[in-house]
UniProtKB/TrEMBL annotation:
Pfam families associated with the record: Hexapep_GlmU, NTP_transferase
Glucose-1-phosphate adenylyltransferase/Bifunctional protein GlmU-like C-terminal hexapeptide domain: residues covered: 283-353
Name of the protein this chain belongs to: Glycogen biosynthesis protein GlgD
Top-level taxon of the source organism: Bacteria
Family statement: Belongs to the bacterial/plant glucose-1-phosphate adenylyltransferase family.
Record bears the keyword NADP: no
GO BP terms in the entry: glycogen biosynthetic process
Nucleotidyl transferase domain sequence ranges: 18-255
GO terms, molecular function: glucose-1-phosphate adenylyltransferase activity
Species name: Clostridium liquoris
């Protein structure tokens, strides 16, 4: 277990292409898989590896995230020593980027006792065994380990993600962007492993010299000066950085193979417990290949869909390839296909809403249709 490691989750993520779902919340707290939030995956990965000290640096509109995380009890992080620490960037992003935000909370780093840090964002959906990655880092003796995954069909997925270019010996040459041109490439997961003192030195160097405003940019600009190790993750990975990728990540969970890997292979994925009653299915209910959370009332046909907590689906409705978040009400004789319904929306009787599998229709939070 990684008793000598601390986790840092930097939630300063690009939300431009998923704005309909992040108007009232950060990307990390978007509901996914019916009963989870996006941050649950990386947070569970850290605690499953034995990490007991986790700092989360968030930014604007973080009320829903703070409500979800609470004291950290679902992840066994409600501790007197170490545990879960939450830091807010404030309403306006720091002029100095994440370097400035981390510097403003330097006391957290200096008072922590762990030797190593795992630094990550929340938008990579996976179930990774950080113990193996940490072992690889320590055996390498290098300054930083970058975790990546080799993917196929890069032109159709992970668009906009960072891509690592490696030589034949797996040494890093450069870090660029996936522009959808190459069929095979190495996607950077945004996960780093380094010593705590090393990240402190990066922060001080960036502030003193002005060479970079973000940890990622500093490492990217100093590839020849830093001893960099790489670790290949070979499991399922999906980056949530757009409406399309969010829709795909949810639909992937309908695959039993992917679902078993994501939620069980390297430890369970934990989330906030609601203690609600089981879902009620009427005689009219017809459910096929779907994930349905607790507290729902289903009186309709549901196919290939993700249904969140306390959703009501009325008689005669037909739901196919949809994501319906908690508290939504789908009234009688509604037809939905390739649609994402945000929380607490009401879709009135007889409405028909259809999107495309590549470009799903999004009904934003607190709107009426």
């Amino acid at each position: 277990m990684l008793n000598n490691y601390m986790g840092i989750l930097n939630l300063d993520e690009n939300e431009d292409n998923i704005r309909p779902l992040t108007m009232c919340r950060p990307l990390a707290s978007i509901p996914i898989g019916g009963r989870y939030r996006i941050i649950d995956f990386i947070l569970s990965n850290l605690v499953n590896a034995g990490i007991e000290n986790v700092g989360i640096f968030t930014k604007t509109n973080s009320r829903s995230l703070l409500d979800h995380l609470g004291s950290g009890k679902p992840w066994d992080l409600d501790r007197k020593i170490s545990g879960l620490f939450l830091f807010n960037f404030g309403h306006i992003a720091s002029y100095d980027g994440d370097v400035g935000s981390l510097r403003n909370n330097m006391e957290y780093f200096t008072r922590s006792k762990e030797k190593y840090v795992i630094l990550a964002s929340s938008n990579m959906i996976c179930n990774i065994d950080f113990r193996e990655a940490a072992k690889c880092h320590e055996e390498s003796g290098k300054d930083v380990t970058l975790i990546y995954k080799t993917i196929q069909h890069g032109e159709n997925s992970f668009i906009g993600c960072d891509a690592i270019n490696l030589d034949k010996d797996k040494n890093i040459i450069s870090i660029g962007k996936n522009i959808g041109k190459d069929n095979e490439l190495n996607i950077f997961t945004g996960m780093y492993i380094m010593e705590r003192e090393f990240i402190i030195n990066i922060i001080h160097t960036c502030l003193q010299t002005g060479c970079a405003k973000n940890i990622k940019d500093y490492i990217k600009n100093n590839l020849k000066k830093i001893n960099i190790n790489t670790y290949e993750f070979k499991g399922y990975l999906q980056c949530v950085n757009s409406i399309n990728s969010y829709f795909k990540a949810n639909m992937d969970m309908l695959s039993e193979e992917i679902r078993n890997e994501l939620f069980y292979r390297n430890g369970l994925i934990y989330t906030k417990v609601k203690d609600e009653a089981p879902t009620k299915y009427s005689d009219n209910a017809r459910v096929y290949n779907s994930l349905i959370a607790n507290g729902c009332i289903i009186d309709a046909s549901v196919k290939n869909s993700i249904i969140g907590r306390r959703v009501i689906i009325g008689k005669g409705a037909e739901i196919e390839n949809c994501i319906i978040m908690q508290g939504a009400e789908i009234q009688e004789n509604v037809t939905l296909k390739n649609v994402i319904i945000d929380k607490n929306n009401i879709i009135e009787k007889g409405k028909e809403l259809k999107g495309d599998s590549e470009f799903p229709l999004v009904i934003e939070k607190r709107t009426l249709s």
